[in-house]
Amino acid sequence: MNPRDFYELASNLAANNNAAHLRTAVSRAYYAAYNTGVEILEKMGFTIKKSPEGHADVRMCLNNSGNTEVEEAASKLSTLSTQRIHADYRLNKVDVENPKTVEALIKDANNIIAILDSCISEPKRSQIIKSIKEWEEKTGKII
Hints:
By secondary structure, the protein is mostly helical. It has 6 helices and no strands. The chain has one domain (about 5-140): Four Helix Bundle (Hemerythrin (Met), subunit A), CATH 1.20.120. Helix 2 packs across helix 3 (about 55-65). The radius of gyration is 15 Å and the shape is elongated.
């Protein structure tokens, strides 16, 4: 499955302004961006865990990519992750039921995906791989 399909679903869900649709749109937007990150990092030779740790691994790799734009995407992915938790588990957090908030989060997911998709080409790809591997060596964390 193409993770970008979750982005399309999020956009469609957000068009219906009820709480369940808006919350589900936030969740799908996050998974579109997260799974695109997994896809891109795996194409670069990194193995992302298929467990809750994988979510942190994606953000850490992106945050240590040596590329300012990708690091900003990692920060937005972290924010989107927090909002996804609110949408899925914190029913008292009603910010994820606001259509304008949800629209902005979906837009952020789209921007994250676009930034990540731009990383697969050279020379950006090699620079990112090098930076992540240097980070792994320095910290002893192997992805």
